[in-house]
Write a structure and sequence with these properties.
The protein is α+β, with helices and mostly antiparallel strands. A hairpin with a 4-residue loop joins β1 and β2. It has a single domain, classed as Cytochrome P450 (Cytochrome p450, Orthogonal Bundle), CATH 1.10.630.10. The protein contains 15 helices and ten strands. The longest helix has 32 residues.
């Protein structure tokens, strides 16, 4: 048995494929467990984690995108609010929407009110149906496919491109750009001289925003470029660009991996697949249980603004806290038999896969729609989806490769076989 006291979660690749034995061990030690390798406290309990998410007065999101890296300042005293704001300019990570605290976060998030509307989401969903068919057309005649690169990545990229109004003629370029991983929270990343895809996207959006402000058109990109705060002030182009690239990043890091997890579960469990094919009203419940079980976002981070407690554990101001979302969604105090997939789970929608509080994922409705459309069209166009045993091994001895990251959990590859419908 592995000695988890000696494990460094942030560098040990043995925890990549299945981190839950380690998370279960941490949970057994208490509500907040100190991890000396990075000087953070890990929270694995559902109730404790949600309480942290919802208390932005005590827990700042300053380090949400920064992760377990050393802070750019030394915390001093029992209240570090002034220090946090003083160091916002030290790195772009501290000024992303995911890292801002109210009221700055509230002001920036208000820009999305005119973009992610019921009307716009409905228009975007109509695009999803045609997109799903177009991508399936590319491999339907082959009988097998590597699903992550051929469908999941392209689908997530192009759905967000449509939502934000990226010109049709540029969308193939976006698809190519996002075939490269963003490397979020990678363990021992390989040396890579390639440009981060988000930098390429940011450059494109800067051109779009400047063009649409100078030459407005009757299109979605113009609406994006001309968004205003609630008080009517127009943000600088850099703010719109940062928000747009963040939406791309969020979609890539979550939706892509959930799609992969969803198809792996269905391909492994033929009885479950047959049941959902026969009764598609079960698709939304299946999606929620997949979101809980797979928990694509392993960890998120907060910083204590003041001296506080998590359970009976006292934390000094300036203490980094690692919210283990995967562990929260597998907390046996919240979910009975948490490591099992249960389609009839009574509290299936109570998971924290999209976070909680003011930073709950604004794109959750979009992600759910993407997942539903994917399943509907795959069921419409195939009569069977299975695991490619020549790639992943026979039933009972499967091998899957997951991205070596301490932030996200998702399949690197998923090889499927399928039978097209006549």
């Amino acid at each position: 048995m592995q000695n988890f006291d000696e494990v460094d979660f942030f560098s040990d690749k043995s925890l990549v494929n299945d981190p839950h034995p380690y998370f279960d061990y941490l949970r057994s030690k208490g509500p907040a467990v100190f991890l000396p390798a990075r000087g953070v406290y890990a929270v694995t309990g559902f109730d404790e984690g949600v309480a942290v998410f919802q208390n932005e007065d005590v827990f700042s999101s300053f380090n949400s995108s920064w992760g377990p890296k050393p802070l750019p300042f030394t915390p001093v005293g029992d209240d570090i609010n002034d220090l946090i704001e003083k160091h916002r300019g030290d790195d772009i990570a501290f000024n992303m929407i995911s890292s801002l605290d109210p009221p700055a976060h509230t002001r920036l998030k208000s820009l999305l009110r005119g973009l992610i509307t019921p009307k716009r989401l409905k228009e975007n969903e109509e695009y999803m149906w045609g997109l799903a068919d177009g991508l399936i057309d590319e491999f339907i005649g082959q009988g097998s496919v590597e699903f992550m690169s051929s469908y999941a990545k392209a689908y997530a990229t192009l759905v967000i491109a449509d939502l934000l109004g990226v010109p049709v003629e540029d969308r193939d370029e976006f698809r190519t750009i996002f075939q490269q991983s963003m490397g979020l929270g990678m363990i021992d990343p390989e040396p890579d001289t390639a440009v981060n895809p988000l930098l390429l996207i940011a450059g494109k959006f800067f051109q779009y925003v400047l063009d649409r402000r100078a030459n407005p058109r009757q299109d979605v990109m113009t609406s994006l470029a001309q968004m205003t705060y609630l008080d009517g002030e127009m943000p600088g182009p850099d703010v719109v660009v940062a928000l747009s690239t963040f939406l791309f990043a969020a979609g890539q890091e979550t939706t892509v991996r959930v799609i992969g997890g969803m198809l792996r579960i269905l391909a492994e469990d033929q009885a479950l697949q047959a049941k959902i094919r026969a009764d598609r009203s079960l698709i939304p419940i299946f999606i929620e249980e997949t979101l809980r079980l797979e928990s694509v976002l392993k960890t998120d981070y907060r910083l204590t603004r003041v001296r506080t407690k998590i359970g009976d554990v006292e934390l000094e101001a300036g203490t980094p806290v690692m919210l283990c979302i995967s562990a929260m969604n597998h907390d046996p105090r919240k979910f009975e038999n948490p490591h099992e997939f249960q389609l009839d789970r009574p509290n299936v929608r109570d998971h924290a896969a999209f976070g909680r509080g003011v930073h709950a994922c604004v794109g959750a409705p979009l992600a759910r729609a993407e997942l539903k459309v994917t399943l509907e069209r795959l069921f419409d166009r195939t009569s069977h989806i299975g695991i490619d045993e020549s790639r992943h091994g026979a039933e009972g001895s499967r091998t899957f490769t997951y991205d070596a990251s301490y932030v996200v959990r998702g399949l690197s590859e998923l090889f499927l076989t399928f039978t097209p419908k006549a």
